[in-house]
Amino acid sequence: MPDTLTDLSSDYDVVVIGGALSGSATATLLLRKNPGVRILIVDKSETLGRRVGEATVEVSAYFLGRVLGLTQYLNEAHISKQGLRFWFANDKVASLDQASEIGPRYLARLPSYQIDRAALDEEVLRRVNEAGATVLRPATVSNIRLATGGMQVLDVKQGDEKRELSARWIVDASGFAAMLARKEGWWKPNNDHPTASAWSRWKGVKDWDGRELTDKFPEWTSVHYGTRGTATNHIIGDGWWSWWIPLKGGDVSVGVVFDQRLVDFPQDGGNIGDRLKTFLNRHPVARELLDGAEYLPEDLNWRKNLAYYSTHFAGDGYTLVGDASAFMDPFYSPGMDWISFTATRAADTITRQRAGEPVTSLLESHNRDLTVSHMRWFDALYRDKYQYLGEYDLLGLAFRLDLSLYYWGVVEPVFNIGEKAYLAPPFSPPSGRVFAALMRTYNRRFARIANRRRQLNALGRMNDRQRMLIPGFTLNRKEIWKLLPLLAEWAKLELKEGWHTWGSARESRTQPAREQAI
What is the pTM of this model? Predict the structure, then answer.
């Protein structure tokens, strides 16, 4: 394997910018479908580092385990995940056991994982290197010159050496840097979703299932039959939520995401880690878990205005995958699902072009499907969700509706059809319109109900001493009928409370800034 820029060929079939999961996964699929294809992966780092996106859900877990073949590795090197849990509080909650909880009653039926992204990304990159891709790192890419239908040209620098290389295809897997989208003017901030985030990894976070909390809160411990600690726990307040993800070896990834229209994150009081702890300590559940814990000072992160997208996903000679193409929101952990769909579609488009199919129609459907998927995905699931995120009853109903539609519309095809299901991203034409409309409608309604509560100073009335423990879903198509009682519950909510907002002017999405934690 060439180790330096000097050893490289001057041209390749595909150059992948970025060696983390989205780039390595795309290269893996290309090598599998195109024996002998010449692929160069260029990554700027000598060693891939940790990043957000540690929690998989069922669709990304299938992609990692069944498509990329990592099941044994995931079981040995990472943690089996036990669903999602949500924790709420109001001014009546003084301790963890008094907080309202939503989560699974039993262990998960389908596999998903809590993963250390540094370890996972290195493993996928190592495997694709062994499979035949050339890996160059640390090295940087600059001055990309796109040529429709021709050879794409880019400059690659390693140390003091710089060379011009060419490739028929460039795969932009540069993550948040989004090199091509920013360079070509396709990158757009999602101003309808002004979220920000602060995060770190911590040591000494209390064990949700350990003896200390069991002895301290014996009744709280006895109300469920699974494990809380290996779930992705979400501690939630008005306009914000935090993730708590255990990693192999004992570290815990802790971060907060908030809508900047609803929450003011502390600007003073030390570094990001200190301010993150100050913010979270206002919530009694977080305060209990962080008692005695310490953040890793070398692992403090802050990002403002998280949501963005590219107006273009592929052209005749380039394609964008993963975070290089779009990012919506980390709630529900959709990032690796998006990697799964974009990497699969990129590899398919390139493979079919190499086989001689007309590239114009390939690119037309590629751009249409991913554009529509991203637009509907955001609009149906995330737009205005932070308006009601902190309400136990509203989020509990939305979560069950979201989950049932996810299982029936996205998870079931993947497990029953297999890899081909990743060619049709969620909500893509033609059938996605109906489900997007349904989700968009109930999410808007819950946001309006929450905004009325906010105006009446009546938020969080059910955020104490409630338990919503969900039996779970299967992949039986008959599960779709579970929607009916949920829709009936929504109808009752509208008749009881929602009717106050029927026909009224739409509330402003811009709300006064707050700094409340509950």
Answer: 0.94
